[in-house]
Every structure is written in C-alpha cells, then in structure tokens.
Amino acid sequence: MQAIDLAQKLDTFTEHWQPRVVGQFNGHDLMVVKVKGEFVWHQHPDTDDFFMVLHGHITIRLRDGDVRLGPGEVFVVPKGVEHCPVAEEEAHLLLIEPMGTPNTGDRATAQPRRVV
Amino acid sequence: MQAIDLAQKLDTFTEHWQPRVVGQFNGHDLMVVKVKGEFVWHQHPDTDDFFMVLHGHITIRLRDGDVRLGPGEVFVVPKGVEHCPVAEEEAHLLLIEPMGTPNTGDRATAQPRRVV
Predict the structure, then answer these.
(1) Does a structural domain hold residue B62?
(2) How far apart are CA A6 and CA B93, in angstroms?
(3) Whose CB among A29, A93, A104, B28 lies 3.0–4.6 Å from A109's, allowing a Cys bridge?
(4) Does A65 touch chain B (CB under 8 A)?
(5) What is the per-residue DSSP string for A46-91?
(6) What is the C-alpha separation between A27 and A50, in angstroms, rounded?
C-alpha cells in the first residue's frame, strides 16, 4: 500500500477530457483528468459528481448559473443536475464517481476507464 | 450552489483532530481537519477511509508499515485495516467518509460532526 501522488499521475499523460483511474474508494473510482476547452452538457441520473481543482481554473456551467473553481476548491454537482465543465486554459482535476460511471452521462459517448 | 474553498474552511478553526463537514457526496461527508501529533489506532469495519493532504505531511501507520503523505497525495485505508495517523507538524487534510462514521472507529470516543 502506498500514497497516490496525483501530480505524478498527471505527468503520465497529455490528453484532455480522458480521466485516468488512480485508486478506488467505497465503490468509487478516484480519477485525475486534464481538461481544456468545453465539455458537453450532461447529467448523471444516479450519482453526484465530485470535482476538485488541483491546478488552473474551471467553470462548471449549470442551467441556473456558473460555478468558478480554482486550486483547492471543490464542487459537487448533485445527481440529475445538468452541467457543462469548461476550462479556458488547461486545468487538472481530481474526480470521484462510482466505478463505471460514463463521463458524458451516456455509455455510447463515454471515455473508457483508463488506469495509471 | 457554490464552490467549497477548502483553505477558507480551514481558516475558520484551530483545533486538531476535529473534522469539519464542508459538503456531501453520495452519502459521504466531505471534511477538512487540522492534525498534529498522534491519533489513536483504529479501524472502520464498514468503510474505506480517504485521506488527502492539503498542507504539511502526515504518516499513516499501518500494522505492516508506514505510508508517508505530502501535499497533493492521497491514501485510501481499506475498510477493516487498522491505522494510526501521525503528524509531526500541523497538517491539513481532506477526509471523505460515509455520513456519521465515527472518526475513531468507535461512537463512544468519536468527535461529533461539526459543520462549517
């Protein structure tokens, strides 16, 4: 058993919007992801969606307003709430979702789970 | 709905080993805590235990070795595994546990859930 160094895990890839699984917790995947640009509007009907910014800034667009997040800030999108993450510059995030949750909310368009 | 600024939440108290609830995620409490010195050996029979260091360093003692964590590092103690967190100097952590989990593994000695 050893510590998970999130920065070291982020150094192993460059792609945007392709989360990497770095660990598990109570049936959830712990993931790091690099993001830049605009994702897609989506929602997760069965789970909350945990975002923590490790580097940079993101905006999580919601239908009733935007939430802006910087380093050391967390936001939990409640289950069923439509959201669209956006990053003007590259940002690095910690994500937590139940194992197997499609990142787009739709298995047809979701990224596969990649482990680093 | 707004971002949770973990550093701002940590600025609201000084006590050690008294987690503060800052949010919820899928039936779990998101908590920040300041730690210094040695906690107690304990285990949680029904849940993994998520630690992320935000500031400083901690050692999580396990029966078969120590895990050392610095800023941006995560460790998940599997459910049922005895552990004892230790910090030589003050450290700040993000913790995630199912709502109501006693921090010592024992309701008789656990800190109450405090919300900030």
Answers:
(1) yes
(2) 15
(3) A104
(4) yes
(5) T--EEEEEEES-EEEEETTEEEEE-TTEEEEEPTT--EEEEEEEEE
(6) 14
- Yes or no: say if B53 and B30 are a contact pair by the CB < 8 Å rule: no
Listed residue (B14, B36, B34) closest to B88, CA to CA:
B36
Q: With contact defined as beta carbons under 8 Å apart, do B31 and B97 qualify?
A: yes
The H-or-E segment that residue A10 falls in is helix A6-10
CATH code assigned at B22: 2.60.120.10
> d(Cα A41, Cα A49) in Å, to the nearest integer?
13
Residue to mutate among A76, A94, A95, A101, with most B CBs inside 10 A, is: A76
- Six-digit token pair at B77? 């103690």
| Residue B45 within any structural domain of the chain | yes
The domain tally of chain A equals 1
Pairwise CA distance, residues A68 & A106, whole Å:
25
Q: Is A25 close to B67, i.e. CB distance below 8 A?
A: no
pLDDT score recorded for residue B65: 95
Query: What confidence category does residue A106 fall into, taking pLDDT thresholds of 50, 70 and 90?
Result: confident
Tokens of B1: 């709905």
Residue A69: which domain range? 6-115
Q: Which two tokens stand for residue A60?
A: 């999580």
* Prediction pTM value: 0.94
In chain B, which among 34-63 make CB contacts under 8 A with chain A? 47-48, 50, 52, 54, 62
Task: Note the pLDDT tens digit of each residue in B7-17.
Answer: 999 999 999 99
**What's the CA gap between A54 and B2, in Å, rounded?**
17
Cβ atoms of B105 and B42 within 8 Å: the answer is yes
